[in-house]
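Researcher: Hi, I'm a grad student and pretty new to this. My advisor asked me to get structures for two proteins we've been looking at. I'm not sure of the right format, so I'll just paste the first sequence and hope you can take it from there.
Model: That works fine. Here's the first sequence with its structure tokens right after it:
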Amino acid sequence: MSTTNAATRFSRPRFAILVLIGVYPVITAILNVILPLTGGWTIWQRTLLIAPLMVAIMIWGVIPVVQKYFRSFINPAIGEA
């Protein structure tokens, strides 16, 4: 049995697309929950509430899932993409 270790490189555009696909429904859901509860708030107050939620979900949710399930897509063999 022969194995080859093809050199790979991290593809930022592919990673960005996958993170966007993961983040879009999350931020839409957060906004649908938060906006009705913060009717009289200014935009900076809403952002102060939403930003930490979004960062936590990205760091401990979206990004690890993207890295785990799409590893070969975001780390293509050199010369592939």
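Researcher: Oh nice, that was easy. Here's the second one.
Model: And its structure:
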Amino acid sequence: MSTKEKIVLEYPLKATSLDVIWTAISTPSGLEHWFADKVIDNGKNITFIWGKDDSRDAMIATFRQGVFIRFKWLDIDDKKEYFEFRINYNELTLEYILIITDFAEHDDLDDTESLWNSQVETLCRENGL
């Protein structure tokens, strides 16, 4: 049984196009601009590579075009664990919101949130969001 806790982070984006966001969170070329140094699509499985020696494999567990994509790390046994990128549109503020769901050990919650904050900052800078 996992001791990890679910975290959900929300980031308002300055995007005028859903397509820009969707491409950034769901395609290898988009993910390479902010999430990993290299992303290799092997059909349903994806290899994320950071630096020269760090890589992890994930599968696309489920997705809905233009709404969300959920990945499951292949080296994690807990079937309830995943990480997900979801796009919501706030009609009041006319903003897209990127919602990231992830899991982390209790002692690592702050570090995990800081890492996502940094990654999303890169996402916004690289994509003009």
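Researcher: Is there anything I should tell my advisor about the second?
Model: You could mention this: The radius of gyration is 14 Å.
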